[in-house]
Every structure is written in C-alpha cells, then in structure tokens.
Amino acid sequence: MATYHQNPRSRFTKCFIALLLQIPDDEKGYELDLFCVPKHYEEDLDRVIIPHGLIMDRTERLARDIVRDMGGHHIVALCVLKGGYKFFADLLDYIKALNQNCDKSVPLTVDFIRLKSYCNDQSTNSVKVIGGDELSTLTGKNVLIVEDIVETGRTMETLLSLLSECNPKMVKVVSLLVKRTPRSSGYRPDYMGFEVPDWFLVGYALDYNEYFRDLSHICILNEKAKVKYKV
Ligand code: IMP
Ligand code: MG
C-alpha cells in the first residue's frame, strides 16, 4: 500500500519540478547592469536570462539526481566540447563533493569528444566529430554524456548512435539546456537543467563563433552582435 502511494507522488513531484524549470517565451530576464558582465561584451547582449548562481544551484541538484540513479557503479563522464566544458567542470565538482561527504561514493573518470554542428546562429545539417578520445574505450562502461544545449537533437542522436556501436553498459545524457523549438526531433535528454525558448543564447561556455564562452551568465545575444561576429 505504501508503495502504491509513493510512486504516483514521486511522479507528480518530477512533473512539477519540470514545469518550474521552463523559462517561458515571455521571460524578460534581467538588465545587464544588475550583474557583472565583461566590458568587451556590454554592447553585444540584450539581457541576462540565467544568472550564474542559478546555473550552479540547478547543477548541484542535477549532480544529486545523477548519483542517486547511476551511483554505485564507476561512471565515465563524457564531455561534449567545447560548449559543455563549464557545465561539465561544475557538475563534476558537485559529484566530487557528494563523493567526499556521503557514506557511499562512486568512482568517476573523464573522457572528451569534440563535435561541431553550428555556424553563426544556425544549426547545420552535418554533425562532425573533430577530435577527442577514442569512443571504443567506453565499451562496457556506464557513460554520462554531458552537453551544454540540445536544440534539434541531431548532435545528441548522432553521438548516441556512434556510441552504441561501442556497446557501453549504460548511457545517460545530461544537458544543461533544452531549447523549445519546432525544429526539435523530439529527442529529450535523461536529465536537463532548464528548458529555454527558441532564442540564441551565449555564455557559460555557449558560444557564437567562439565568442562569449568567457561570460559567466547565460544571456541573449543582440542582432548587432550577430552581424559583428559573423563568419
Ligand atoms: P542540435 O544538434 O541542433 O541539438 O544542436 C546542439 C548544438 O548546437 C549544441 O551542442 C551547441 O553547441 C549548439 N547550439 C544550439 N543552440 C545554441 C545556442 O542557443 N547557443 C549556442 N550554441 C547552441
Ligand atoms: Mg554542445
């Protein structure tokens, strides 16, 4: 009887949390002047959408959820470069903190893969692997793919299909952001930080032609900047 009551409730709690994480289409964000933004980007940004502190707080909770579900076994965390590096580093710090402060701990190793699918603010049709570790080392492992943002889902679907050829034991995907867009293939990661509107976002390692990775908060790029940094 207790189990009967517990399951629907935890399902409800999960749905409720997912709703809270949606950043609505009419979100106004915050004036740039309210936060510290590098001088060299002040003219390029419209608003702060997710302040760095909120990213960190959400990441801390994702670390807890991931360890709860995947813990007990060795995890190989696979960072999708370059955009995933900040989220990867902070997420792993939180997992390390759990390892240090809980009775149970989970061995953690890291791997890196570099993919490219974007030019200017447009997703291209091709997803290229342009570097990183050999995926064959992941055979038989519990793999946690760490990504910055899922938009169409093409990048993640390509990576998952490459990875499946190497027969890992388990694969989970965590993406800090998921974009709400009609271009989505319908793919959803196992864990996500925030669902965001169909905007081009930069900061916290998300880039526009390699710029804005050195910005702490996640912000909206303005139209002038799209022209200024266009390739
Ligand atoms: P997808 O293949 O369309 O899902 O695109 C995913 C990749 O495109 C991400 O890993 C990012 O590198 C990049 N991307 C998608 N949307 C944005 C954005 O708003 N800002 C920066 N990069 C983005
Ligand atoms: Mg990425």
UniProtKB/TrEMBL annotation:
NCBIfam families reported for this sequence: HGPRTase
Cell compartments where the protein resides: Cytoplasm
Species name: Salvelinus namaycush (Lake trout)
Subunit composition and interactions: Homotetramer.
Q: Which cofactors does it use?
A: Mg(2+)
What is the E.C. number?
2.4.2.8
Q: Which Pfam families match?
A: Pribosyltran
Tell me the function of this protein.
Converts guanine to guanosine monophosphate, and hypoxanthine to inosine monophosphate. Transfers the 5-phosphoribosyl group from 5-phosphoribosylpyrophosphate onto the purine. Plays a central role in the generation of purine nucleotides through the purine salvage pathway.
What Gene Ontology terms describe where this protein resides (cellular component)? cytosol
Name the chain's protein.
Hypoxanthine phosphoribosyltransferase
Q: Which residues form the Phosphoribosyltransferase domain?
A: 54-208
GO BP annotations listed: GMP salvage; guanine salvage; hypoxanthine metabolic process; IMP salvage; purine ribonucleoside salvage
Return the similarity comment: Belongs to the purine/pyrimidine phosphoribosyltransferase family.
